[in-house]
Amino acid sequence: xxxxxxxxxxxxxxxxxxxxxxxxxxxxxxxxxxxxxxxxxxxxxxxxxxxxxxxxxxxxxxxxxxxxxxxxxxxxxxxxxxxxxxxxxxxxxxxxxxxxxxxxxxxxxxxxxxxxxxxxxxxxxxxxxxxxxxxxxxxxxxxxxxxxxxxxxxxxxxxxxxxxxxxxxxxxxxxxxxxxxxxxxxxxxxxxxxxxxxxx
Length: 200
Hints:
This protein is an all-alpha fold. The protein is 72% helix and 0% strand. It has ten helices and no strands.
């Protein structure tokens, strides 16, 4: 895969993650009875794991990258607390990033992931994607699918469908997502949906 193809893939998967996450949260906050919205939304988490892993490998300033993840996670705590989660997905992504950047933190990050959104399943899913992308694609794919046995029969099982997006290399060029937008969208769109929920 060329550098241009890699860039197109990362950017496209970011967009897919944002769109499916938005659909998921519309279902969660406004239409909880429409289960198909939540099913579509299961695609988002693997997409964000993939882009975080790529970000970890490609960033020139990992400390700043990690700080941005944790900082946005802290900013979002008041919103995620509403859904019963204190340490939201951004903390999970930060732990995956840290453990990939410095393998010495793997065990500690694994333990801490238990207290974060998606838990140990989410942390190991990140490592399965890392294996699939950078170490051994077939093995990583098997690990990715195998981990979903542990979330059966919850709706999270549908996250395994994201493997097709991760295996495809040829994506068309899409509009670049501004970095600030990528971070602020997560708390802001949930705040808007919560406002609509309470008004309506």
